[in-house]
Amino acid sequence: MKIDAKANVGRYARVPSFVELYGNGTAFVLGNADLVPEHGTNSDVGLWIDRAGDRLGVLSRTTAFASWVDDLVQWQYASWGQARADNTARARILGVEQELRLMFGRWGRVIGQGTVLDARGETIGVATNNVAEYRGLLAGLASALERGVEELE
């Protein structure tokens, strides 16, 4: 029997892709030139167990992982089929993956795999999929700031 434990921690940054920034030229995938790069920390811990045998072999791979992301680039979908990438202020993603393989002799195999995710994001208020409404709101708030408005109802 062979048992391995593995662990990893790292920081990363990802700039928005061309399609996320400029769309794909259709009315269904809209670009967002205001996207900022996402950055965060990823970590994972894994346990691998292998037991080989002439009649029965077992292979198990279990991995727990976590990500903490600032300015996550995420696609927002409208009910009419339109999509637009936006930044989510903060996100936390936790998960576990499991793979189990049973080998019966030389020819029999049963393989099962599964993943469980718990992803949570932090945004500013209620999100809208209406791009025109969103941009209008931002333009109105910017105009109010320029005029010295200190309170809105």
Protein topology:
Layout: E1 2-14, H1 18-22, E2 29-30, E3 38-51, E4 56-77, E5 83-104, E6 108-122, H2 131-146
Parallel strand pairs: 2-5
Antiparallel strand pairs: 1-3, 3-4, 4-5, 5-6
Radius of gyration: 23 Å
Largest beta sheet, briefly?
Answer: 6 strands, mixed
> Could you give the count of β-strands?
6
- Secondary-structure-based class equals mainly beta
Mean pLDDT: 89
- Dominant shape: elongated
Q: Helix content range of the residues, please?
A: 10-25%
H-E string: EHEEEEEH
Uncertain regions spanning at least 5 consecutive residues:
none
The termini sit apart by 67 Å
Q: How large a portion of the residues is in β-strands, by DSSP E? A: over 45%
3D architecture notes:
It is a single chain. This protein is mainly β. The protein is 14% helix and 58% strand. It is built from two helices and six strands, in the order βαβββββα. Strands 1, 2, 3, 4, 5 and 6 form a six-stranded mixed beta sheet that branches. The protein starts with a strand and ends in a 7-residue tail after the last helix. The mean pLDDT is 89.
Descriptive key words:
mainly beta; 2 helices; 153 residues; six-stranded mixed sheet; single chain
Write a short abstract of this structure.
The chain is mainly beta and 153 residues long. Helices cover 14% and strands 58% of the residues. Strands 1, 2, 3, 4, 5 and 6 form a six-stranded mixed β-sheet that branches.
